[in-house]
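Annotated sample (chain length 212).
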Amino acid sequence: MKRLAVLAACLLSQAVYAGARWQDTFCIAAQQVLAGTAVVAELEVHEDWDEFVEAKASDRPLTVHQYLGNPSSQGIPRTLSCKMRTAERINATETATPDTPAATGDADCAAVHRYMLQRSLADLAAQQPAATRPRVVVDEDETTYIGPRWLKPWPYNAASLQGDVLHLRARALYAPHAWWIPMPERFKGNYYCHLVAPAYLEAILSGEVIPV
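Output written by the structure step:
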């Protein structure tokens, strides 16, 4: 694990495919989209899956965790996993005013996928001539409230081609910070997402790979 050493975690994907270099720090943006916040979280990037599994998003300072894995046959990581905090937890620990909360409220992992798709399409439009791209549908999250069900089965493929339509579906874990939930304090107030990796999404959209 290397705090803010974000280039190391995706060295392989960049060597094979140069797209979506912003995926190196994407979980920071994912936290902002998810919670509706302008707070810029600190980022811990994990190269080891087991280490990522044990990590927990935290407060003071707001810290999120990122893991790129599940490589394709071309060596491009297919799955980007983010461990983040809920809007309620951000509001409980970040300085704000009653009229302007630090976070406006939780969205979902699908909202993060929509943001990622918009950014990917803009990048591709700037990098290469217009091309015929598959129609993309962002499906509702596959949501669970228990850690083991978020972690397994693994790997998780967030992108699938059904006919000529590309479907993006995230697996989410939502654990509100509530007194009645029978779990340790550190497990509460978390929002996790298994997402498609941005470089893999761009490779699909550009026609370089076909999801399987």
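Annotation: Helices lie at 6-9, 11-16, 26-35, 49-54, 87-93, 109-127, 147-151, 198-205.
Annotation: Residues 1-17 have pLDDT under 50 and may be disordered.
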